[in-house]
DNA sequence: TATTTAAGCGCC
DNA sequence: AAAGGGCGCTTAAATA
């Protein structure tokens, strides 16, 4: 059963649809939404809520203590169906762009989102849902893209729940780390003392007593006057230089980065009541990866500060990482048995070395990354032919994705998310040699994007399935269902890594569920294909102890 | 003065 | 080792 919610001038209305999509009841006005949703959730585990944006409905429900099992997020699904090559012929994909193609509207300030009367985008959720069902039903294998839509929507639920629960964050621990590395918190506009000391060492070594190292042009000038020929002030370029100024300069850069990105200021604005609540954006990246917005930089939390993520007393963090996810996804996508076999013993890169293709694990890793990103030069580019000889199917797969992109074609992930159409201009008979060169470079660049798109996008699908399955399994653990203060729940997600916060006595069970959910995800995407998705799990007190 | 762009660096 | 994919954020510099 589907339960379609919409907001109209008269308030919130609810329409029941049976599994065939036919209205079986309603629309009925809803007076107390949270109560209504809670009742329906208890009544039927098989129902699925249908709404425009999870981010507009679910936070208020969570605030009222209500969790939902399943939903369809119409806006996220529209974005997939609008672009997918599998639904290209549908009325939805061929029709004019409308409000459903627009980003989620910003919430109005001051209103109570749960009860606010709000306009639907263009036309109602019922009609949009019907269009989407028709588009899915007309595909050769509706279950394929149907799984993607369900996983994407589950991701939206998880994003809202993780924000609601928050990542446990110890301000005092973080502050101690900062004081230790930089010196105690200074007054505004001043540098911490340890940082200032390192800066003075740089200034002395460069004989530039007033140097502002935060200005790249100024720093470049100072380095030049000291006789150091560099193109930029990037750390990796400076690393190889032998000069007394370099060590303190690199140290200063490290400190400055920590201070500006995750210093006291970050702490003040992003951590409250012992929780960091990032604003995740499911589907925020074209490949299907999540993005994040607003302060915090949830997806760029440096390893340096992860020690401040500490489980509550009596609780543990279970940190799980899908080992070498993208290479395994490539092996599965291309059905390259040899590469799958290389990963079957645990460490895929070690398996590649064992097969004799390359001689060190580091080479295996850099060669694989190069294959997936489209490296042409350097170490990675040199190793590529060896990899291609050992694993012809896998390499041919990414090469074909690259060629398709260069031809201006769309590529599609395992479950049906398609790449955007390239804006490559090409050239005509009036083009100069420089125009031709530029156009070819653009085409190759787009080819690197499409090459990576299929792998990164399918990895994102795997991760969504993993996390959605895990969520269901965690909800089944114990009587604390729906309760973020006593039950195991997800608190962090980072592309191929999740963190679960749980009472100590549940940690072992959580670990089992994490592995089982990973195996499920592999089967969901790739069926009976013999490909392993091993998960590295660490049960820790603080996130810094993992890996 | 306000807004946009670029450099640099963090994550995968 | 530092070339190749996807992001967001902060600061300084450039532009309106």
From TrEMBL:
GO biological process: DNA-templated DNA replication; double-strand break repair
Catalysed reaction, written as an equation: DNA(n) + a 2'-deoxyribonucleoside 5'-triphosphate = DNA(n+1) + diphosphate
EC number: 2.7.7.7
Keywords linked to the UniProt accession: DNA replication, Exonuclease, Hydrolase, Nuclease
Family annotation (CDD domains): DNA_pol_A
SUPFAM superfamilies: DNA/RNA polymerases
Highest taxon, organism lineage: Bacteria
The keyword Hydrolase belongs to this UniProt entry's keyword annotation: yes
Domain DNA-directed DNA polymerase family A palm: 302-506
Protein name as catalogued: DNA-directed DNA polymerase
């Amino acid at each position: 059963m589907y339960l379609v919610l919409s907001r109209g001038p008269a308030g919130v209305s609810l329409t029941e649809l049976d599994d065939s999509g036919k209205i079986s009841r309603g629309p009925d006005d809803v007076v107390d939404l949270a109560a209504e949703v809670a009742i329906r959730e208890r009544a039927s585990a098989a129902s699925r809520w249908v709404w425009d944006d999870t981010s507009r409905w679910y936070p208020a429900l969570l605030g009222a203590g209500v969790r939902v099992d399943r939903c369809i997020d119409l806006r996220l699904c529209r974005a997939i169906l609008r672009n997918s090559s599998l639904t290209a012929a549908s009325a939805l994909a061929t029709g004019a762009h409308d409000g459903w193609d627009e980003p989620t509207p910003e919430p109005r300030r001051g209103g109570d989102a749960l009860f606010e009367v709000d306009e639907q985008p263009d036309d109602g959720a019922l009609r949009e849902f019907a269009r989407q069902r028709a588009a899915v039903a007309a595909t050769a294998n509706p279950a394929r893209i149907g799984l993607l839509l369900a996983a994407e929507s589950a991701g939206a639920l998880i994003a809202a729940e993780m924000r609601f629960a928050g990542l446990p964050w110890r301000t005092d621990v973080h502050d101690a780390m900062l004081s230790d590395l930089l010196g105690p918190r200074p007054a505004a506009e001043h540098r911490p003392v340890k940082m200032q000391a390192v800066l003075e060492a740089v200034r002395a070594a460069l004989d530039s007593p007033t140097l502002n190292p935060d200005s790249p042009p100024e720093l470049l000038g100072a380095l030049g006057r000291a006789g150091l020929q560099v193109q930029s002030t990037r750390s990796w370029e400076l690393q190889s230089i032998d000069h007394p100024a370099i060590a303190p300069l690199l140290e200063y850069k490290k400190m400055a980065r920590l201070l500006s990105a995750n210093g006291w200021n970050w702490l003040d604005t992003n951590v409250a009541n012992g929780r960091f609540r990032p604003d995740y954006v499911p589907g925020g990246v074209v490949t299907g990866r999540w993005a994040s917005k607003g302060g915090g930089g949830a997806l760029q939390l440096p390893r340096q500060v992860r020690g401040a993520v500490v489980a509550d007393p009596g609780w543990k963090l279970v940190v799980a990482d899908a080992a070498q996810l993208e290479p395994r996804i490539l092996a599965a996508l291309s059905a390259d048995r040899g590469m799958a076999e290389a990963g079957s013993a645990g460490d895929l890169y070690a398996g590649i070395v064992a097969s004799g293709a390359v001689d060190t694990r580091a080479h295996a890793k850099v060669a694989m990354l190069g294959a997936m990103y489209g490296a042409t030069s350097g170490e990675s580019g040199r190793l590529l032919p060896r990899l291609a000889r050992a694993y012809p199917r896998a390499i041919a797969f990414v090469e074909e994705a690259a060629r398709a992109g260069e031809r201006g074609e769309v590529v599609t992930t395992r479950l049906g998310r398609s790449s955007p159409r390239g804006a490559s201009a090409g050239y005509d008979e009036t083009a100069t040699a420089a125009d031709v060169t530029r156009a070819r470079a653009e085409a190759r660049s787009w080819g690197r994007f499409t090459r990576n798109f299929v792998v990164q996008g399918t990895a994102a699908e795997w991760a969504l399935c993993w996390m959605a399955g895990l969520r269901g399994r965690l909800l089944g653990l114990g009587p604390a269902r729906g309760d973020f203060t006593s039950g195991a729940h997800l608190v962090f997600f980072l592309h191929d890594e999740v963190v679960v916060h749980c009472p100590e006595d549940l940690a072992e069970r959580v670990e089992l569920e994490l592995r089982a959910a990973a195996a499920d995800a592999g089967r969901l995407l790739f069926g009976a294909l013999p490909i392993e998705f091993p998960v590295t799990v660490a049960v820790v007190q603080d996130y810094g102890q993992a890996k």
